[in-house]
What we know:
30% of the residues lie in helices and 36% in strands.
Amino acid sequence: xxxxxxxxxxxEACDLVMRAPGAGRVAADEVMVRGPVAGDLRAAIQTVxxxxxxxxxxxxxxxxxxxxxxxxxxFASVSELRLPDGPGYVQGDVARVAARVxxxxxxxxVLVPSSWASHVRRRIDDAGSST
Length: 131
């Protein structure tokens, strides 16, 4: 799993963070980034919002990956979230757990709090075996 970073900052600084590959807007003042936050971007965030908090959050999250031609069908079996047609980000209920979902060319990446990982993984595995 790649690094996970949480950025808590004012809206203008969060707009800058959205330029990072793997960024997903959680709220007006929060962005989650799957992957590193480059040094020049960190500096720009701190310039726009000196009180911004940029923290590494990998340990708190687990990524459950859904791949294959039926990935969207499997996902639809465990969530009513509407996935973007192309690469993108959504958040909401997946297998009754609050999740953050990144859609990429090679699959769907469901990030859940680590304490819920086995539950979500089992539900997705069960959905995959029934499609």
